[in-house]
Design goal:
It is a single chain. With 412 residues, this protein is α/β, with parallel strands linked by helices. It is built from nine helices and 26 strands. The protein is 22% helix and 29% strand. The strands form seven sheets. A five-stranded parallel β-sheet has the order 3-2-1-7-19. A five-stranded parallel β-sheet has the order 9-16-10-11-12, with helices on one face. A five-stranded antiparallel β-sheet has the order 22-23-26-25-24. α1 (13-24) runs parallel beside α8 (293-307). 42% of the residues are buried.
């Protein structure tokens, strides 16, 4: 047999890709994939998009036959109770114990709990599972009053979906602008305008003090002294790493499970990947915990290579995306507030890019309706090429043509 007996906890994108990559790269030993949900593993991004807008389920990550054909033991609907590292055993809530030689933790993240009175009322929902999405969708009837707490990607995607189903939407955000943690002011401004054009109401720099109801939510009380009537409340105030099992097992954790460049934890026989893992990103030069599918898939492949002793694939530039109404937002790379920026295109028409520069090189880009810029930027950031600064703002010039070569004179 090739490779150690491997146990994977969590069947999201990271866990399923780890199992698939191990088999594809030659792992022939026993391979067990465990997930707390009873459903076949499914895609998560559609939960705040198509699942809410259309009466469709979220697509499966792999068809059921995939697991059987590759000898992947898929255990569904069973919770993991503890990890006994001394015995190399995982103990399940149903009383079973499963041994491992290598353990991969792909437990993901959990929605941050809303810390106010009334958060447990019926009709107050967070979005993590397909069941959560269906509960939200059932409440999005025409004329329903939805309050979204948090103007991040998930909250705004839910707001867009709710509007398409005829709901009246109010978004509460404690920051002065939407997407404050993840987008530049230029993108924030355009996204807010887009939502307002569809009838969404925003209350900025506004927190929540309590949620009231008679068993079911009826109103939301805010720090501005308002009482907002609500038939449904969706809380999207961020996520936390699902690292409880790791902490209880004594693994080193700090805002996620700490791992090295091969996603190995403080126990050499245990790896962690995806949303739950915090690692040193060589392209950023800092410790990060990335909540994106691109990173989950890359780390899954990297763990498979490490477990099988293969040459590791270099880390790539992380990228993100969101769909709201008919607008597609995409970003790639790392940037910080106050970075040197160039805007190209037409923000008022919703077709523009915000370029974040580090010296003459592109560090990151945010795009709306500029797919060509997004594709070109991924290559430019990866290559580290210097750019023609004098032409960056001209959207009629393809971004891909603005890289300087050794034969290209730098403009004065």
């Amino acid at each position: 047999m090739s490779g150690p007996q491997t146990l994977i906890l969590g069947a999201g994108h990271a866990g399923v890709q780890t199992a698939a990559a191990l088999r594809a790269k030659g792992h022939t030993a026993r391979l067990v994939l465990i997930d707390q949900q009873a459903a076949l593993p499914y895609e998560r991004p559609p939960l705040s998009k198509d699942v809410l807008v259309k009466d469709v389920p979220s697509p499966l990550l792999r068809k059921e036959a995939f697991y059987a054909e590759r000898g992947i033991e898929l255990l569904r609907g069973v919770a993991t109770e503890s990890i006994d590292r001394a015995a190399s055993v995982v103990r399940m809530a149903d009383g079973r114990s499963i041994g491992y030689e290598r353990l991969v933790l792909a437990t993901g993240s959990l929605p941050r709990a809303l810390p106010v009175p009334g958060a447990g009322l019926e009709g107050v929902v967070t979005l993590r599972t397909e069941r959560d999405a269906l509960r939200i969708r059932d409440g999005l009837r025409a004329g329903a009053r939805l309050v979204v707490i948090g103007a991040g990607y998930v909250g705004l995607e839910v707001a867009a979906a709710a509007v398409s189903r005829g709901a009246e939407v109010t978004v509460l955000e404690r920051e002065p602008r939407v997407l404050a943690r993840v987008a530049s002011p230029e993108v924030s401004s355009r996204v807010r305008s887009l939502h307002e054009s569809h009838g969404v109401r925003f209350l900025m720099e506004c927190g929540v003090t309590a949620i009231e109801g008679d068993g079911r939510v009826r109103r939301v009380l805010t720090t501005q002294g308002r009482a907002i009537d609500a038939d449904l409340v969706v809380a999207g105030i961020g996520v936390v790493a699902a690292d409880e099992l790791a902490r209880a097992a004594g693994l080193a954790c700090d805002n996620g499970i700490l791992v090295d460049e091969d996603c190995r934890t403080s126990d050499p026989s245990v790896h962690a990947i995806g949303d739950v893992a915090r690692f040193h990103h060589p392209l950023l030069g800092a410790q990060v915990r990335l909540e994106c599918i691109a990173n989950a898939m890359a780390q899954a492949d990297r763990v498979a290579e490490a477990l099988l002793g293969r040459e590791r694939t270099p880390y790539d530039i992380p990228w993100f995306w969101s769909v709201q109404y008919d607008a597609r937002l995409q970003s790639v790379g790392f940037w910080q507030d106050g970075s040197d920026t160039v805007v190209r295109g037409a923000p008022a028409q919703g077709r523009f890019s915000v370029l974040h520069l580090r010296g003459p090189r592109l560090a990151a880009i945010e795009t709306m309706g500029m797919g060509g810029d997004f594709i070109a930027a991924r290559k430019l950031i990866r290559s580290g090429a210097s750019l023609r600064r004098d032409s960056l703002a001209d959207a009629s010039i393809p971004l891909s043509s603005l890289a300087l070569t050794e034969d290209t004179p730098c403009p004065n």
